[in-house]
């Protein structure tokens, strides 16, 4: 099934629609003043799919491109920041959408990128990924795990779908929690009733992952709301400041990093060992070091 997409270059390059046969996948917040932001402003959550680079959490919050106008030339959209330029070319395919990215910066420049896709999901939706995939969970989940949080750890690691005993593959009803996790794999599928959305990222020589944001009415204070995200990433942590060796993308000697995001309205994973397999044990949690 084809996916119809809309992007808004003038307002941070945000994807505002991803529609398959009348099913709108992207969740949106109306009337939040997103059209009036400038670089340096606090993040304004309008939903959709944000391009978050060079970090997701940390400084600047949700990165440096969401608050800037992009330019468009044919199929290619581009944004320039102080340390890098980012270009993307998004095209429809027979079964979905393909976006090709190029980031240009000085060799050695390190960054995290996320296709920060907030999805409009029912309480019965599931996230399918390969059972046993190493999965990092972050401090907001500390009270929900089956072992104490290690002092100073930026994350702890266990196995999908229940790292540290915390079942994360089901979205479920609002329960007042908000949890972020990073699966160290490059593809996953959302199942919501009869609908499917597969997300995959490929980048030669760079760390790839799939981030999960499962906010079931636990964030932000003092007026939390429900928002659920599945986010293909370069890098393996939300905050660039926490990234140790192998946890962030790095610009090679050529000065360019290239990657591809693929979205389809069907499962793209082989069975039984691919991302749509279910089950698996939680395993022991392993602390992630705090990097300065």
Tell me what you see in this structure.
With about 290 residues, the protein is mainly β. The chain has strands at about 5-10, 15-20, 25, 50, 70-75, 75-80, 85-95, 95-105, 110, 115-120, 125-130, 135, 155-160, 175-185, 185-190, 195-200, 210-220, 225-235, 250, 255-265, 285-290. It has an 8-stranded antiparallel beta sheet with strand order 4-10-18-17-14-12-13-21, with no helix packed on it. An 8-stranded antiparallel beta sheet has the order 5-6-7-8-20-16-15-11, with no helix packed on it. A 3-stranded antiparallel beta sheet has the order 1-2-3, with no helix packed on it. A hairpin with a 2-residue loop joins strand 5 (about 70-75) and strand 6 (about 75-80). It starts with a strand and ends with a strand. About 45% of the residues are buried. Mean pLDDT is about 95; it is low at about 280-285.
């Amino acid at each position: 099934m084809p996916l119809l997409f809309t992007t808004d270059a003038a307002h941070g390059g945000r994807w505002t629609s991803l529609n398959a046969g009348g099913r709108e996948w992207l969740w949106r917040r109306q009337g939040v003043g997103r059209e009036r932001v400038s670089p340096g402003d606090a993040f304004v959550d309008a939903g959709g799919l944000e391009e978050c680079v060079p970090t997701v959490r940390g400084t600047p919050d949700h990165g440096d491109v969401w608050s800037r106008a992009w330019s468009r030339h044919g199929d290619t959209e581009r944004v320039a920041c102080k340390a890098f330029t980012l270009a993307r070319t998004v095209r429809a395919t027979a079964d979905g959408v393909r976006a090709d990215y190029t980031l240009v910066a000085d060799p050695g420049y390190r960054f995290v990128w996320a296709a920060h896709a907030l999805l409009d999901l029912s309480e019965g939706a599931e996230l399918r990924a390969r059972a046993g995939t190493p999965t990092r969970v972050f401090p907001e989940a500390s009270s929900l795990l089956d072992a104490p949080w290690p002092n100073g750890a930026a994350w702890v690691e266990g196995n999908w779908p229940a790292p540290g005993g915390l079942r994360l593959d089901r979205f479920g009803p609002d329960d007042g929690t908000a949890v972020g996790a990073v699966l160290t794999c490059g593809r996953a599928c959302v199942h919501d009733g009869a609908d499917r959305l597969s997300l995959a990222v490929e980048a030669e020589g760079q760390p790839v992952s799939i981030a999960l944001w499962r906010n079931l009415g636990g964030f932000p204070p003092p007026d939390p709301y429900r928002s659920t995200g599945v986010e293909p990433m370069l890098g393996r942590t939300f905050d660039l400041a926490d990234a140790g060796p192998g946890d962030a993308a790095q610009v090679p000697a050529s000065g360019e990093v290239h990657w591809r995001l693929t979205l389809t309205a069907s499962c793209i994973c082989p069975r039984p060992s691919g991302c749509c397999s279910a089950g698996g044990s939680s395993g022991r949690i392993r602390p992630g070091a705090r990097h300065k």
